[in-house]
Each structure stands twice: as structure tokens, then as C-alpha cells.
């Protein structure tokens, strides 16, 4: 039983999963919309929501917290240019997941995750 184990494992080690989330969040900040599997989209959505909530207050501490999650100064700067202005009046729900059907190669359920 997986009692009290939050989050999806995605058949990866902790380090691999952390790098996957980081890369997906950086791509989402850069492109505002990415196509990935449904499981990965559902796994990265809460992480991205927390990151945008941190970025809503543009303080030095918030920038350091976001940089520790992203490890990319360029993506962190880009996040702090649009997040405080676009999401200041919004209490959560910054991302949207849309199913787009199965992938041709292996039939994995694909989805679009985008910033609202």
C-alpha cells in the first residue's frame, strides 16, 4: 500500500523524476504550451501551480525559491516578468490540461498542458 506517499513515481528514480519535472516546467515557461503524456502533465501540474504562486510576489526570497526549483536563471526571469502581472488577481488554476488522444507509436494518452 502507498499510504501517505504523495505524487506519482512515473517509473523513475527520485533524481530522474526531479529532472523531468524541472525540464517540463522550464519548457512550459518558455513556450506557454507543451505536448506531453497525460501522466506527466498531471504530475507536473501541481509543481507548476506552486511555482507560479511563489512568483506572484516578486521578492528576492521568491526568486531564490523559484531558482532552486528551476535551476535556470533565464526561465526564472521570464517567469517573474509575466506571473506577477497576469496572475495577480487569480487564486490558483494557472494551468490547463487538455487531452489530445493516443500517441501513434505506443498508444500512450497524450495531453496539452498550457498556462491560462
Please tell me about this protein's structure.
The longest helix is centred in the first third of the chain and has 18 residues, at 14-31. By secondary structure, the chain is of the alpha+beta class. The model has no long low-confidence stretch (mean pLDDT 95). The relative contact order is 0.19. 53% of the residues lie in helices and 17% in strands.
Helical content band: 40-55%
The tally of structural domains comes to 1
Number of strands: 3
How large is the count of helical segments?
A: 4
Characteristic key phrases:
single chain, 116 residues, alpha+beta, 50s Ribosomal Protein L17, Chain: A, three-stranded antiparallel β-sheet, 4 helices, globular
Task: Set down the secondary structure blueprint.
Blueprint: H1 14-31, E1 33-37, H2 38-55, H3 60-70, H4 73-86, E2 95-102, E3 109-115
Quick structural gist:
This protein has 116 residues and is of the alpha+beta class. Helices cover 53% and strands 17% of the residues.
